[in-house]
Amino acid sequence: MVTITVCVGSSCFLRGASQVIESFRSLIEKEAPGMVELKGSFCMEKCGNGVSVKIGDLIFADLRVEDVESVFREHVLPAVEKKAGCGPHVHH
Ligand code: FES
Predict the structure, then answer these.
(1) How far is the CA of 47 from the centre of ligand 1 (A)?
(2) Domain boundaries 2-84, corresponding CATH code
């Protein structure tokens, strides 16, 4: 299970944390249902101009709603595939 943690502290909340969560939620439903856990967290002490999000052990600060899809494709889907044990290059 890959975990995405979205900061819902006051700074991130004001900068769109709930839209970021919604956007991740619909991507997960479409692309990797049941494979990703979505959580909220208190302030990650990276308050900035966007929302702080943690994917596994990686922290992304200053994320915007419009960045969610590319982060999801670049960092979440590969992690899901790795955990599922069937990466994109199964054929040799
Ligand atoms: S409120 Fe999100 S990092 Fe501080």
Answers:
(1) 4
(2) 3.40.30.10
